[in-house]
Structures are given as C-alpha cells and as structure tokens.
Amino acid sequence: MVPRLLAVPATLALLAALAGCGSDDGSDTASDPTSPESSPTGPTTTCDYPDGGAASKEVSAPDTEAPASGEVAVTLTTSVGEIGATLDAEAAPCTVNSFTSLAGQGYFDGTTCHRLTTAGIFVLQCGDPSASGSGGPGYSFADELSGDETYPAGTLAMANAGPDTNGSQFFVVYDDTELPPSYTVFGTIDDAGLETVRQVAEDGTADGGPDGAPATEVAIESVSVG
C-alpha cells in the first residue's frame, strides 16, 4: 500500500507521514497476541504473523512464541554513526520479536531511512528495503497499544498504514511529538543516537520541504542484537 500522504489535506498529511506497510493489501489480518504464559526462561506470549503481500526482501516470519519480559539491547550501525537502542519486550513482545528476527536475518542491512519530517512531527522513518515507503517483510502483525502512548524524543515506534498493519517500517522520534496513541512504542534510543538523528534533521530534507528523503543519507549497514 502506498502511504497516504499527497491525497490528504495539509493538516492530516503530517500524521500520514507515519504511514508504512505491514500488509501490501492494507487488510487488518493480524490478531492480538494471547496473554503471557509462563516458561522455564520467563513469560512468553503467542504472536500471529499472517502473510501480508510480497516481501521487499526475502525473509522468514518470526517464531510465534515470543519472550514477554525484559529488555533487548540493539545497535544500528549506520552511515552517520551508531544508534544504540533498548527494546521493551514486556510492553511490545510481538513487535520486539519481529524486529529482532528481521535484524538477525539481515533484513535491515543495506537499507536507507527514506523519510524525515521536520514540521509538526519530528521523526526519521526507516525499515523499508525498497526505500519507497510501501515496502514490508511479507507479513503483518497486530498493534500493541495501551492507549496511553506518548512520543517524546528518543522514542522508537512502529509505522503503519492503519490498525494492525505493522511490518518492518519503524520511526525514531528526535524531538517531542504529539501523535494519537496509534503507533506501537517498542523501545528507546540512547542519547548519542538521538544526537546523531538530530544532526541529520538539522540538514533537512533533500527537497527542502517538511516531509521527504533526508538531505543527509542515512544508510543502515547492520543491526546487531545483544
């Protein structure tokens, strides 16, 4: 699905900037995860990752059983520097499970962050191998929302094309941003990574507008877990 951007009024276009693809057909096919269950290694939950159109890069869907507690450290090595992040498996187990699975399969390697917004909302959006804003991993999954989500600077959250259409696209919030609680928050980035993203934002977009490809290319070289 092509992100809903140009066809909406200017007051809505900023929210549409976070549209991404989890499902190419836009259908709400993902179901909510079950409640956490106990296991010898800690609580787990069962996730559903149904097919969601053609994958932008060949990848396997994650295991359906996901850890439902603890934090996961990841490092995004990019062309502008390292961005360290801490993922919250308790708040968003299915999202973290998907992200770490994609990272482990090299899905993000060699991709570019295709969108920067500099007015109204302040995010850098990444995770689409096609760099078109419409690419995804070939599966989707449900939102993990409490209804109390906020998006301060340093937030790591999922982009989507509507309810339960999460895939691989995510965004980094580099300045406090007001958004409806519609985007799954699954972690935070560290202070050094936040400063790196802010420096990219200072250079603006390639065309000088408030929403577009960053003027300074941000290429993800690798994402390491742990």
TrEMBL record:
Matches recorded under SUPFAM superfamilies: Cyclophilin-like (SSF50891)
Domain PPIase cyclophilin-type: 78-225
UniProt xrefs under Pfam families: Pro_isomerase
PROSITE patterns, alphabetized: CSA_PPIASE_2, PROKAR_LIPOPROTEIN
Residue stretches of biased makeup (Low complexity): 28-46
InterPro entries: Cyclophilin-like_dom_sf (IPR029000), Cyclophilin-type_PPIase_dom (IPR002130), Cyclophilin_A-like (IPR044666)
Region (Disordered): 23-70
Reactions catalysed, as given in the entry: [protein]-peptidylproline (omega=180) = [protein]-peptidylproline (omega=0)
Family stated for the protein in its record: Belongs to the cyclophilin-type PPIase family.
Known function: PPIases accelerate the folding of proteins. It catalyzes the cis-trans isomerization of proline imidic peptide bonds in oligopeptides.
Name of the protein: Peptidyl-prolyl cis-trans isomerase
